[in-house]
Design goal:
heterodimer; A: alpha/beta; 2-enoyl-CoA Hydratase, Chain A, domain 1; disordered N terminus; B: 2-enoyl-CoA Hydratase, Chain A, domain 1; 9 strands; disordered C terminus
Chain lengths: 339, 323
Amino acid sequence: MLIVRALTLGARASLRTYLDFEKPVAEIEAKIEELAALAEASGADAISQGVELSRLKAKAEKQLADIYAKLDPWQKTQVARHQDRPRFRDYVAALVTDFVELSGDRKYGEDAAILGGTGKFLGRPILAIGHEKGRTTQERLKHNFGMARPEGYRKAVRLMDLADRFSLPVVSFVDTAGAYPGIGAEERGQAEAIARSTERCLTLGVPMVAVIAGEGGSGGAIAIAAANKVLMLEHSIYSVISPEGAASILWKDSGRAKEAASAMKITAQDLAALGVIDDIIPEPTGGAHREPAKAIATVGAAVAEALDALIPLSPTDLRAQRRERFMAIGRFEADALSA
Amino acid sequence: MNWLSNFARPGLRGKKPDEARETPDNLWIKDPLSGELIYRAELEAADWVTPSGFHMRIGPDARFKMIFDEQAWQKITLPKVAADPLKFKDDKKYVDRLKSARAKVGREDCMEAGYGRIGGAHAVVLVQDFDFMGGSLGMAAGEAFIAAADAALRRKAGMVMVTASGGARMQEGILSLMQMPRTTLAIQSLREAGLPYIVVLSDPTTGGVTASYAMLGDIHIAEPNALIGFAGPRVIEQTIRQKLPEGFQRSEYLLDKGMVDLVVDRRQLKTTLSMLLTVLMHKRSSRQSDGEPIELTELAPTEAEATGQERRKSKAPRAKAAE
């Protein structure tokens, strides 16, 4: 009996991956599981056990809320990269009906680091594009950890062409450490592919809403994020270079990524203040990975609202809005300068 | 009267503080390929291409001088931007890095724009200076690009972008990333107006610059043996853990892979640009024949533009590549 319980416990514990800074919560939650299992086994004194359990649960909840209320940029980076964080496929499965995945760039090949297809986003006909990192080792390899090659960006361009032709709003999900740096990628014009994809976003005559869902890594991210409205999850990050990359350039030491993360201002809160993103989508206490369904639903509602505001606009107005949106970025002190 | 006569020609006028950095430079410069010592004046006369064909890195003034007709151009005043919005600091404060770069190069940031004629065709030339913080793309460079494209639009001129950059400026974080879509929008305006946008890729051009305005030209010209790519060679080597092939990410390789239209020796660059611009802008040639005054009325040139006070002696390029 005891052994079975231990096994059950082990199995339960293994379901959740705790980040380093979540350790206090992990300890309480382990205790909760232990108590629950004990109560189940002995059946004794159910009332006092129940009281103790709810006390511990409240404590864990509070602990978690406290930790997540003041995550530093490096901790957010870890949350943004959490293996259980909702991925493109999870969003599509929950929010898009009649989804038909479309493949290939019609030029060279298929790149599963960026996925896309048509469907109905909470009822609205759309085209969805997004980075997919995958979760299991096999999936991660298949999706190349969400690091796209030129074919991924050219597929995105092709799908955006399609969206434009059939008046389908584009919803994009950004979650990449960056575009893939490899010989083949360079050979086939990685830079050009990214530039063209960014350009295609900007010339769309249909609404485009981008969600920075996990990691927004550099050019590989902006290539599908030059949208009318850019939303960002509360604990996502979005940066010009990964914290590790910045650290290795600044200090020749990628171990100083934590410092680089702080210096670069990569959190949703910082980016909202800089006017780079339009809205922050709140995550459940403890991050989107703790309650994926809830997180996905909140994202769905935010995207739907953004789409509904943009859909009535004409192609000309949509392009103009996008132009104004991006041209305004960084001009926040223009008045002060001219004064 | 020539339309440019209002403006000073590059000469010995308008001493600027940055000239200080010219004097101590070597009189003799080492050819990085052959090791041969070359007399500075000779090298300058050869557009900073060594006898062995090595193209040395050069700055905006040398570039303008060799590209524009009669070595004459009007400087375009570039917008000022908010300094250090992130209050960035690594080992040094970003504001201090900016200060020393400005003192070294004698310019606010890495871009400089000029307007003049190339083979008679009106053109705005924007040059990125690798000597200023590695030519990194930040807000100033982005705004410079937008201003140059805007100047080309208002003057119905072509635009030539000479790139040299290690990529985005990390010290401006996401705001430098945002220059990718912003410059792309500026190119879009040129496209809509039917004005040519020609990119001259010089050594080196990598990162976010390549992944935006450097790869969106109507025509891509590369200087011989320039390093051009998205990821830097070191990053790729670290990722794939193998040595990169000889000539990888060099101009000739990009030509072979279909990413650039032509690789042009710097001494033929002006001729090539003239031929391209005059043909691409053939519809405008009737309105913009040689010697005719240019409509500047709506432009309300800034003081610097109007008086030509900003003109200065063509600076000698830094022999950076020789190091």
